Amino acid sequence: MVAHYTLYVVPHTHWDREWYGSYQLFRTRLVRLMNKLLALLERDPEYRTFNLDGQTIILEDYLEIHPEKRATLERLIRERRLLVGPWYILPDEFLSSGESLIHNLLLGGQIARRFGHRMNVGYIPDTFGHIAQLPQILRGFGIDNAMHFRGLDPAGLKSELWWQSPDGSRVLLHHLSNIIGYSDSAVLDADPQRAAYDLRAVAQYKAERAAAHVLLALQGVDHAEAREDLPTILHVAEDLFDDITFVHASLEEFWAALTDAVRDVELQTVYGELRDVPRSPGGVNFLLHNVLSSRIDNKLQNARTLAALERWAEPWCALSWMQGIADYPQGHLWAAWRWLLQNHPHDSLGGCSVDAVHRQMATRFEWASEIADSLTEERFRLLAQSLDLSAVRDDEIALLLFNAVPWDRDEVVTVDIDLPMHWLQKQALAALPKPRPITPDSPYADVLAARTRAEWAFGAPIMPMTTFRSVWIRPLDGEPIPVEIVDITDTTIASALASGPRGTMDVRRVRVHFRAQMPACGYTAYAVSTDPKPVNWSPPSVSPNVLENEYLRVQVHPNGTFDLTDLESGQQFSGLGSFEDGGDCGDGYVFSPPPFDRVYTTHGAQPAIMRVGRGIGVQHVRIQYAWALPARLNDARQRRIDETILCPITVDLMLRQGSRRLELEVTIDNRVKDHRLRMLFPTDLADVERVHSAMQFDVIERPITPVPIAPGNWWVEDPPQTFPQHGWTDLADGLGRGLCVISEGIHECAVLNTPRREIALTLLRAVGYLGARQDPTTIIGGAGPSIPTPEAQLQRTLTYRLALHPHTRRWQDDEVWRMATEFLTPPRALTVERETGARPPQASWLRVSGRNVVLSAVKRAEEDEALIVRLFNPSNVPTEALLWLPRPIRAAALVDLQETLIEALPVEQTDQIRLTITPKQIVTLRLALGEGTR
Ligand SMILES: [Zn+2]
Q1: Quick check: 851 pLDDT over 60?
Q2: Quick one: DSSP state of residue 12?
Q3: Where residue 437 falls among pLDDT bands split at 50, 70, 90?
């Protein structure tokens, strides 16, 4: 080295909270680490500072055991000797939602500031690749830098770069070494002098890619305790070497120096998503992209919990608070977010941990969704108590429907009506003729009626039949509409609002389909009555293997595949819905076909095909396979054994009247091991080379085939043959043919490079190891220890929700995300008895309109009594958003993601806000509301 460099040596620990050990095992390590670290910092002022891995949950985990250390922690954090935040946990970005990333940073920032300081560094050292919008998200939290390890091949790149989001936001990126990542100086020699030479070697290595004379050494690794003689090593190094200054530093100090040093340097820019594999010699920054599909049970739970919290609990609590119905339960909502976010660390949500971790995650998901659903239901019931339901007749009960999307909906809904047994009995009693008094002259019929009533059943009062054959449903001001009952069960419910002896209620639960109209982010009431007689609404007349409505026609083939015809455009998609099953000798991180495999398909299957129900409102065909698949890999894990086991698979196809989507429910009873199961949807878009997928605050365009690694080049991991999605993937030619495949909790997708251009969804990967020894053919070595994970074989039943939406133009022209949003946010229902309050039986609480304007969050502001509404524009063109509220808007402002003011907005009309959203931009509005209703 000729020039003079400064090496910022940042001691740290990377805290995988749970992974190859459980949370409690790792916390035992954490407590010991923290006890020693605090003692060291107190004892040795020369040990200046230590980095606590960018996440604040460490503080909570430690203080639960040592609450008496809080003041010490606060002092050290205030003095910048301990650096914490900005995250609550270090997430998997592709598997988190956009809002969960924001809530992660909100919570991490709040906790860090409560302790005295939030580290202002976008530290994401270990995450398995990075989403395109992360720079915009970080900027929204006042963070203008990021540092990472995976997802970028450094060939031709300096370690300092601009990283730009599709909206144009950029952060200064420091790409850690692709060889040693966040642990470049983890293993220094035990002898301080030799350790000093080691550090100099690190500096020389880092200088090769540095854009300036500011270098970083990360002195630590997973679960590493502080090396106590670091100050001594640095003194020795200072004395030994003249060409390098050695500084024991925090990451903030490194960033301050780096930012200054590159101010006048022309830096290269990397754009968008970072998902590349190592290609440069020595690179071990594995992408590990098949974390998208391992432990799909957790992923399905995650999707449902996110919906319960993001689509229902948080917005509904905020809107109910705005309406004066209930307080805003800020702490309670954060409790749900905490349980959910504790499942989002990269090793947890990635599905690459030991079985105990994924089992414990299931409980955390349950707690988060139970909190979310209880808070939501509590607000539904509080609202119901204040409604004017006087239009409900004596023999009727009210059914409230709630719509969480910000536009009106008119669709066939499938909901449960919970008819209380006491209400059914009251109705039945009321329906009996009143016996007339008996006189000596009474006619025989009266005598019989009275005697039967009085004397039947050994003198006990007669209980009339509560059985019914039909239910009538009508709008409060209208006539009955066709209804199909699809199921009746007896159950006992416990409501969040109950108190005292009415803690439980016996109900007869009736699942129905009927066509309903629901206002935007609002509710509406229907009146329900029962009828002992059958009512025969006339069913549609179609052949047994055909479903057809105004827009779509579906024909099911004997092998279980089906053709979908868009009746307006005439385009047809054929042979949809087959399954493909191949072996997997991979692990929690990577899919790997075994060296000698046979890939099975259902093309020759002969499933049972049956029509379910009568087709009033929803036509339903069920396809039942019993598929013989190889039981497992052989002992050498080179191929699958010949023995097969039957795996039951059920595909329910449901077509709603008036709907432009075909809905699928797929249930798999997985009885075989070591395999990957995919579902295929051929599009026949042979010339289409680019595919679009919904992502976090984005719709991303990707080539359908990844860039291969050239023969002879550095190879440690295959480029991903699959890609992430968050809700839907769309293939379209923009010339009249397009298919959007919508799914819930399925994150791994591919488009096969065949003339049929099948969209392939990974429904499950069943693997037996956390890290699969030396077996995988798609990676060298592998990422995790080879601990058996028998539960990752997922020997259980899994149910998936999907929908297919044919369309003719490009995704943004047809706004296919609206179809996905409706499918992924079905309305909720609540049965309530008649109330005579003052609120109208139908209302909208929020409306959002505008081309490609997506509503992301509705919440109360963290710090005060304002309403926060977050929108984004996933398209490539500017758009105009219009937001309407039923309460007067006193003031409106644009705020950043941590809710601090950017600029005030003019309020032209007091019930609406109009604004322009630039391409790919996330916009957060802060609205101060006045009194009264509009
Ligand atoms: Zn990690």
Answers
A1: yes
A2: B
A3: confident
Going from the Cα of 369 to the center of ligand 1, the distance in angstroms, rounded, reads 26
Cα(535) to centroid of ligand 1, in Å? 60
Look at strands 214-219 and 797-807 and give their pairing: unpaired
CA of 652 to the centre of ligand 1 (A): 39
- Ion ligand 1 residue ranges (Cβ < 5 Å): 16, 126
What was the pLDDT predicted at 3? 77
What tens digit of pLDDT does each residue of 785-806 get? 999 999 999 999 999 999 999 9
C-alpha 222 – ligand 1 centre gap (Å): 7
Phi, psi torsion values for 164, nearest 5 degrees: -115, 130
Distance CA 109, CA 103 (A): 10
Q: What does the block give as tokens for 893? A: 């402002």
CA of 595 to the centre of ligand 1 (A): 30
Q: CA 306, CA 706: separation in Å to the nearest integer?
A: 30
The rounded distance, in Å, linking the Cα atoms of 543 and 934 is 51
User: Is residue 642 packed enough to be buried (19+ CB in 10 Å), middle (13-18) or exposed (0-12)?
Assistant: exposed
pLDDT at 740 over 90: yes
Q: Which of 152-166, 586-600, 766-780 has the lowest mean pLDDT?
A: 766-780
Per-residue confidence at 810, pLDDT binned at 50, 70, 90? very high
**Torsions phi, psi for 683 (to 5 deg):** -110, -20
Q: Please state, in angstroms and as integers, the Cα–Cα distance from residue 68 to each residue in 49, 64, 72, 105, 244, following that order.
A: 21, 10, 8, 26, 41
CA of 345 to the centre of ligand 1 (A): 8
C-alpha 484/C-alpha 467 separation (Å) is 16
Task: Check pLDDT > 80 for residue 933.
Answer: no
Angle at 127 between CA 124 and CA 129, to 5 degrees: 110
Distance (Å, rounded) from C-alpha 531 to C-alpha 826? 27
Residue 14 CA, ligand 1 centroid: distance in Å: 7
Q: Tokens in use for 746?
A: 């399925």
Amino acid, res. 622: R
- Distance from Cα 127 to the centre of ligand 1, integer Å: 7
Q: How many CB atoms lie within 10 A of CB 35?
A: 14
22: CA distance to ligand 1 center in Å? 14
Peptide bond before residue 785 is cis, with ω within 30 degrees of 0: no
847 burial class (0-12, 13-18, 19+ CB within 10 angstroms)?
buried
- pTM, entire model: 0.96
How many CB atoms sit inside 10 A of residue 444's CB?
Answer: 7
Checking DSSP bridges between strand 470-475 and strand 912-917, what pairing results, if any?
A: unpaired
